[in-house]
Amino acid sequence: MGGCSAAVFDAQTGQAVSDSRAMTRGQSEELVPMVQGVVRQAGIDFPQIGLVVTTIGPGAFTGLRIGISAASSFGLALGVPVAGLRTPDVLAHACPEKSHDINRLLVVLEIKRTDFYV
Fold this sequence. Notes:
By secondary structure, the protein is an alpha+beta fold. 36% of the residues lie in helices and 22% in strands.
């Protein structure tokens, strides 16, 4: 099943605010309100954002286009850099049971066509 996520990370305090929802459709309608919500919950204003980050795949083509387009738009509007991270790397670093050696963690992503990204 697909999903949609947004987060704000404060590099000075180490605090993060995030919202993540499982959904198969509707990400294009939900993403911007989710971003607005986490920015509000973080207690900051958009001009305080210094970097916009998005995943760049592998993943569902439409979902990646939505995320990359939104990140590019936010970066352009705010005049800040935009960075892309590989989806398996993001998932590996988010794994609470990861070993001390992140290079030994195998991430498997199921895709709609009964295939897997490993």
